[in-house]
Amino acid sequence: MFQFFRKKTATPAGSESPALASEAQLEADSNATVPSEEPSAGQTNQGPETVSHAALAQPPRESWLSRLRKGLQKTGHGISAVFVNAKVDDALYEELEAALLSADVGFKATSQLLQQLQRRVKSERATTADAVKQILREELAKLLAPLQRALQIGRHPTTVVMVAGVNGAGKTTSIGKLTKHLSQHNASVLLAAADTFRAAAKEQLAVWADRNVVEIISQADADPAAVSFDAVKAGIARRKDVVLIDTAGRLPTQLHLMEELRKIKRVVEKAEASAPHEVLLVIDGNTGQNALAQVKAFDDALGLTGLIVTKLDGTAKGGVIAAIALERAVPIYFIGVGEQLDDLQTFDAHEFAQALLP
């Protein structure tokens, strides 16, 4: 989800300044009706504002939930099949354990879920498979809840977001989709084509810049850190709300390339002492437990602030999100279940559990 904070704007003498929202204001705003993006007569847009989770549904959230359920069918099928005409006995738990492990939930998360499930089944005297499934759904949502956190834009005059990920995870495409989300909420965006290693990466990002009508900083055969430095300086000078830095894709085992990422982060900090404000990792849901290994490696190297999980519609291993929640709880800002612009949406633990176990 996003949380946009109001920018400081000039106000008449004696009136209250709408400075950055306090935490109390933010909580209140998150439950308020979201204003139209179109200014009323006599008003002008003043940049990004705090908006609620519901406001980010483009298209309506119901349509997204339908696509999410469809996208998670491969992952959820084996788990849901366990409950068909099942009796609540030891055999059910054994089959459920196998199904969760097959979905790449991981041993630790599977053990915790089953322990909580059995405890509640006993205490609540659940006697039907449907009742047990509902309890599992609730326990899964509870496990995933710490991953549901807002991507905050506006706490800094220019929010610098560094995006990493291995080649093929959908990093550059996710940046394009994220740019659309930001632009829809009146945030001005500057893209930095710092993936100078991969052929045509700059051109791919330029296409997304054109689609979203945003500016891009790129240099032929330039050092990635130099491009990042120039982009941050340009973003600040041009008063952009967000600078998105597309870094080179690499495997965490490629130590010299991981060091390049550390260098980019250090150089960005030289351009703006408080930056980068967000360090995101894009992971491919198809990779299962390998995705967890990537999260651990990139987090150790960079200090991740958030994740984008892509391609959940093409995998039976989407349960790895539960493993991430238990073993390296880096917030998941977005999940993707398709190639369209609207197929990248904010992560909601309850929605995910409902879609996985309908």
Task: Report the average pLDDT across residues.
Answer: 82
- Beta-sheet strand percentage? 5-15%
Distance between the termini: 23 Å
Radius of gyration, in angstroms, nearest whole number? 22 Å
- What percent of residues adopt helix (DSSP H or I)? 40-55%
Strand pairing plus helix content: what structural class?
alpha/beta
Q: How many E strands? A: 10
What is the number of helices? 13
Strand order of the largest sheet: 5-4-6-3-7-8-9-10
- The stretches of 5 or more residues where confidence is low (pLDDT under 50) are 6-59
Oligomer: single chain
Largest sheet: 8 strands, mixed
Shape: elongated
**SSE run:** EHHHHHHEEHEHEHEHEHEHEEH
Compile the SSE list and pairings.
Elements: E1 2-4, H1 23-30, H2 61-71, H3 73-81, H4 90-102, H5 107-124, H6 129-144, E2 151-153, E3 159-164, H7 171-184, E4 189-194, H8 201-212, E5 215-217, H9 224-237, E6 242-247, H10 255-271, E7 278-284, H11 289-302, E8 306-310, H12 320-327, E9 332-336, E10 344-346, H13 349-356
Parallel strand pairs: 1-2, 3-6, 3-7, 4-5, 4-6, 7-8, 8-9
Antiparallel strand pairs: 9-10
Helix pairs in contact: 2-13, 4-5, 5-6, 5-12, 6-13, 7-8, 9-10, 11-12
Describe this structure in words.
- With 358 residues, the protein is α/β, with parallel strands linked by helices.
- It has helices spanning 23-30, 61-71, 73-81, 90-102, 107-124, 129-144, 171-184, 201-212, 224-237, 255-271, 289-302, 320-327, 349-356, and strands at 2-4, 151-153, 159-164, 189-194, 215-217, 242-247, 278-284, 306-310, 332-336, 344-346.
- The strands form 2 sheets. An 8-stranded mixed beta sheet has the order 5-4-6-3-7-8-9-10, with helices on both faces.
- Strand 4, helix 8 (201-212) and strand 5 (215-217) form a beta-alpha-beta unit.
- Residues 6-59 have low confidence and may be disordered.
